[in-house]
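User: Can you help me understand a structure? I only have the sequence.
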Amino acid sequence: MRSFGGQLKQLSFWAENAAPIGLVVLVIVFAILSPTFLTLGNIKAMLVAAAILVILAIGQSFVITTGGIDLSISATMTLGAVGFGLAYTAGLGFWLSAVVAILTGLLIGLINGLLIATGKVTDFIATLGTLSVATGLALIVSNGKPITVTSVELLTLTSGSVWIFGYPIILAAILGVLAWFFMFRTRFGLHVQAVGGNEDSARANGISSTRIRMAVYLISAGLAGVAAILLVARVGAAEPAINTQYLLNSIAAVVLGGVSLTGGKAKIVGPIIGALLLTALTNGLTLLGVSQFYQPLAVGLVVVLAALLTRFQKK
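Assistant: Let's start by predicting it. Here is the structure, written out as tokens:
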């Protein structure tokens, strides 16, 4: 029995630390296999590339902590990007266009919140529906064509950096710190975890699960709006076609980061490291010349392994 208990403790350790351990292993392996992997230029490029996924993973973490899931997060980002592009071409300028992108995201978040918290529609169905709605709206208002955006501010956002830390990852880090503070140092964060842990018990203690669920979907969608701005900056245009890779990877990063899919277990740093791990994995495979067809397979295997390990997390 002691041996069995020791094995469980060992599995629990791996489950709790899957993201940081996996990231370290990947860095060592790719550094050995590719001499360019740990160059300052490549590290900077990876961090910039990871910024969007980090922000989406932070938003998804709040939702999943309540036991929900946001399948519309990538489509919300796409619609926010299109909103940014349309606003900028209409002459609103960078900052007002950025506000439009975030407000567009918040609108989808509000719909999700109302459907799930008030309408009692299951999160899977509600966000699957808004995924389709946001995707359709992005294609309709843009006529299915990319909206080219040429902006000094976007150029600065893309190329500016402090040493190897580009402005996008700095922004993502700031949002990560704020998310950690609100999740672990405020009553709101405690309520988010309480609703995910036991909704009936949370209600009995005077916590409004309706308001909490509304709030987390607004946070997720609002951060998707912020990610939309970085997406436009990265691509140089507002692309109306949804990138489902961001949806899958945002959930994958949260799972890798040790957040329980059943709710009640919150983490912010873990999902951020999970997002960095997935970015490093894709980057390393690309440097090694591995076909892009195999990259989703590699990501999927890593996520399935992490999901299996979560069964052994400490409660």
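Now, to help you interpret it: The chain has one domain: 17-312. The mean pLDDT is 91. Let me know which part you'd like to focus on.
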